[in-house]
Amino acid sequence: MQSEKDKTGTSAEFWRSIEQIEGLSVQTGLDRVSGEREDYKMLLDLVMKEIDKCSSNAKSFLFIKDLNNFRIEVHGIKGSLANIGAAELSAKALELENASSKEDIAFCVSNLPPFLEALQKFKSSIMEAFAKENQIPAQAEVQSELISDIEAKDKYFDLATLLILVEVDIRGVIKKNPEIQVGEYIKFLLEFENYAAKGTDILKRIAAREADGDDIKILANIMNLLKNIGCTNIISGIENTVLAGKNGHIAFAANCAKEVMEDYNQLQARIIAAKKEVEPEEKYSVKEGGGTPRENYETQTLEDAFIQLESAEAVRKLKILAVDDSPVLLSTIISVLSGNYQVLGITKPALVERFLMQATPDLFLLDYEMPEINGFELIPIIRNFEEHKDTPIIFLTSMGTIDHVSTSRKLGAIDFIVKPFQPDNLLEKVTKHIVKKRPIAGGQ
Predict the structure, then answer these.
(1) Per-residue model confidence as pLDDT tens digits over 281-305
(2) Which DSSP string do the residues of 272-300 spell out, in sequence order?
(3) Residue 120 CB contacts under 8 Å (≥ 6 apart), including other chains
(4) What are the tens digits of pLDDT across the range 344-357?
(5) Helix, strand or coil for residue 436?
(6) Which ranges of 230-279 would DSSP assign to H, the alpha helix?
(7) Segments making up each domain of the chain, as ranges
């Protein structure tokens, strides 16, 4: 007898396995995403990736006694764990965060290993549940060719979201191939999604000098996919890695892989975040009769779709830019707000300035604690744009002290939300403060 499945296509057995994971409150996690199981399932997948990132980075930062970046790393995983309902592990991360703030190296050195061990055990439990659904490819199986015929029956990518990503140059794709259809472009995106995680694993192996010829060949195929998608900014780093690998320059390939890995992970997360599991809306239909809205949408040229998207800007949803170094937190924000607003997420604050040269949000949600540039430091960058002199800014913070709130207001933030937040509270505060921006004279 076939297992009962929910609307996401996930079996009841999967959810039973998840609910049995020690230290995980599924209901708490579902509450964070307004009860949407599909969104919660995506958060679990993102958390597994964040656990790997934290395990690698936290050990490195502590080894060189960089307590500031160590604190930021455990702060990020703390919020992600709290968001999916892993309260006990989140509390352990908080202990490490507080110890690093006090520069208590001895505590961090003593408590990081058991914390990371607990994280890996937690990740393994999640992976076992996914494996039962055959949703995680076997690590032992190495394919030298990319799958070119991917079933896309219930999947498509939201071009409106991709349109404003600084890493994706759709205009460049159209310029090179004016006749490319939406369906062809979506196929490239689906192929990349299918192998995006494998690209991360390959870059890790190359960086560790453990890659083989098949790894280099697959990475070369992924590179070609990225060219077809329009991700030109990242190509040179991957191309250098591939060429060095092909020519046997192992040390140079390892250095190239290390340099490009973070940007690659950022790119794949943002592209995959634009994937939708429902049919395109009727507004994408461009033909009268003779085809379903989906067929009409996919057989039009990418250029025509692009023009429609740009013309729709005048009647768009109000736009929110959320900046948080945790993909889990960003996904939660998008899940809660996307029904009412167009929500765009950035995990690297250094990209905000470039982003604002191409898009004009109506409200900003800024995390305070981020690497390289924190939320406070982003405010003058945002205010430097004439159209954002008065755009509402709301801080997302786990430090709701009086001094912290006072400082945020002095710098120009209109409000703050303490993490982990309740969906109703987030929606209420955004609705209270967001205002549609008027075009500036002489502007776009």
Answers:
(1) 444 444 455 556 667 777 888 888 8
(2) HHTEESSPPPGGG--SSSSS-HHHHHHHS
(3) 51, 55
(4) 888 888 888 888 87
(5) coil
(6) 235-246, 250-273
(7) 12-132, 156-276, 317-433
Angstrom distances, CA of residue 99 to CA of 109, 112, 424: 10, 11, 32
The secondary element (H helix, E strand) that includes residue 156 is strand 156-157
Pairing mode, strands 415-418 and 342-346: unpaired
- 169 closest CA partner among 229, 114, 254, 253: 229
In contact, 434 and 316? CB cutoff 8 Å: no
> Given the structure tokens 């599909």, which residue do they identify?
38
235-299-193 Cα angle (round to 5): 35
Length, in residues, of the chain: 444
Phi, psi torsion values for 129, nearest 5 degrees: -65, -40
| Identity of residue 24 | L
Which region among 99-108, 164-173, 224-233 has the lowest average model confidence (pLDDT)?
164-173
Q: Is the dihedral of CA 332, 393, 408, 367 positive or negative?
A: positive
- The answer to whether 146 and 218 have CB atoms below 8 angstroms apart is yes
Q: Measure the N-to-C terminal CA separation of the chain; round to a whole number of Å.
A: 59
Dmax (CA) for the chain in angstroms is 71
Let me know: does 387 contact 358? Beta carbons within 8 Å.
no
Strand order in 393-397's β-sheet?
342-346, 319-323, 363-367, 393-397, 415-418
For the entire predicted model, the pTM comes to 0.55
Cα dihedral sign, 67-68-70-71: positive
Among the four given CATH numbers 2.60.40, 1.10.10, 1.10.1040, 1.20.120, the one describing domain 12-132: 1.20.120
Q: 317-433 has which fold?
A: Rossmann fold (3.40.50)
Please spell the DSSP secondary structure of 114-130, one letter per residue. HHHHHHHHHHHHHHHHH
How many helices (H) and strands (E) would you count in the chain?
19, 7
